[in-house]
Amino acid sequence: MITVRAPKRTFAARGVTWWLIGLWLLLLIGFWLRLSFLLGSEYHIDEFTSMLAAKMVAERGLPILPSGLFYDHGLLYSFLSGALIAFAGFREEIARWPVLLISVLTIAAYYLTAWRLFDSRITGLLAATLATFDDPSIMWGARARMYAPAHIFVLLSLACLLESTLKRPSQRGRYLFLTLLAAALFSHTVTFVIVLPMAILLLVFTVAYRREWLRHPHLWKVAVAGLIALAVVVAVVALGQTGSTVSLQDSSADAPPPLGLEFLRGFFSPGLEWSRFDNLVGFFEASEYRWLQPVVALSLMATLYRLLRHRITFVDVALLFLGLFTVLVVFQMGALLADVWSLSRYLFIVALPAFLLLSAESLARLVGWLAYLMSRAIGKPGRLDWTRAGVPLVGMVLVLASWGPAAWDAAHIRGTGDYHTAFAFVRESWQPGDKVITFHPAAAYLYLGRCDYYANQVTAKVLQDEGDESLLVDRYTGSPLIDSVETLDAVLAESERVWFVVDKSRLNTRYVPFFTQQIFAQMDFVYQSGDVPVFVSRPHPVPLPAEPMVTLYGNFSNLIQLSGYSLDRRAIAPDGTASLGLYWRPTGDPSNMLKVFVHLRNGRGQTIAQADHFVYERLLSLDEWNRLQVQGEWLRDTADLRLPLPLPADAGPYRIYVGLYDPSTFERVPLLNDTSGENAVVIDLSNLL
Q1: CATH classification of 550-684, choosing from 2.60.40.10, 3.40.50.10190, 3.40.1260.10, 1.10.3720.10?
Q2: 562 pLDDT exceeds 70?
Q3: Which member of 179, 222, 296, 297 has the greatest number of CB atoms within 10 A?
């Protein structure tokens, strides 16, 4: 039986120039990809919070937010970006630049760590190639968020731990590892999940592979230094936002904190249901990673074979360590952490560094084996210079062919607007006495210098007001919380003009339907920036009753039913605007967006007022439609009729005709058992007007 072995993967001295050229080329490509994404102005919702923290560093020297909260989340980013903002002034692009530079530096870090761990410049180049074209690395590598800094420190921590304990035991290297680990923990709180897997695997591999490093003198000093560093990090986290806030609606909000430590509340939530793991596993099932999985599996199988044959080397140890580390991190996140801390995007920070290193070495092995087989096939196994030179090139071409299109698409994403442009519109339209309500107080404060109210009914994370402990305020700006329809109605009634800014996704998911419907009933939809609509209150807002004043029945093709209405003549505004509340029951699946027609006619059949409109101003998502249908919840709609007051009494009787039609064809939706002859429900106003 012939054992196929990969050739030694080192470049000849005369070939050193080629890897250097390749690395610089990757750095330039990586810089261009990330810069293109940066300039595309496509923002993640949390970027505005990080930018506010950085701006506070620029103004105050510390990330102390307007609420007084110490924002410990992403300290390294806050200080780096804050320093640049203090020097160059605030702009979104300026706040993103430190992350971009760190992300480009990460490409070089992948090359160096892979080269040192696996003694192969080929693996180093392949690791750098993966980091260059990785889709999440491009996006998080140009966002004003702490993911890229945390990613590089997790990468360096892993490499330094393996280097200083299992490869070349070094006390200095272990101190460097502790420093890098502390930097990772200060970069993003979720990096705490790497500590336990590292400790477990270090114990296992020390016992199984290299015990002698435990006999090094002064090892206890390293352990003490590690405990002190960990205690400092925990103290900062406990005093900062992680230890100060928990969502009101979180199941752990009223539960006792784990181990009596308040800052752990909302962090741990043990369980083993598959639903806790599917999104985490799905991260690695993305198309760009899927083809690497069999390559990694083949490499690990070869490593296990070498282990059984007692021919294992440090490269094999590193591969097994990285593979098990990835599995343990995913398992720990799914089995131990609460939902808010087990988001799949966090795997970019805590698991992807190990996976990319593992993939780079596995790919290098595969291509090396293929080159070796090719040399045997041509009958010149002793002359491998050309095959060795082609190994990194073939691997890089494979990565480029698989990841290049997605990387190109990521680099060319162009935002259509977000909270920054939405609040820019509000700022330009601002008048003395105006107030603003928003789901995103950090963004409001960043662009308006204020936030009057924080609206959230599902994931509200708040603090107690220092002056009034019964008052709950937003943790970022100290804005009073609006979490009920009654509070919203009161704010709209007592204020001269109020703005409301929220993205469409959270408009449908962070409020109960009645709350969202009150927004449309009492405010006008005046602007949309990308996926962020802007509303402004009406001069005379009229709250929508929870239940209809009058019940009726109108079945429109089993698609939706009109089951009631409300109209209070005492609430007609001075300008003659009457708010007609329509109460619908979704019963089918719409194929397109239908429009509601509302016609007020006099006794002669003349239309004297009309209010054709889209329900929710076209912001009603299909998910929300289905949710209302499943829950049996009202789809409350408002039609504002401008009445030509006074209405002549002798021109009656007055009737309102309500129906639906397709705006593209103007064809009306059939009304079952229609008696109007117009596919419309008729509302008699004889007793109301």
Answers
A1: 2.60.40.10
A2: yes
A3: 296
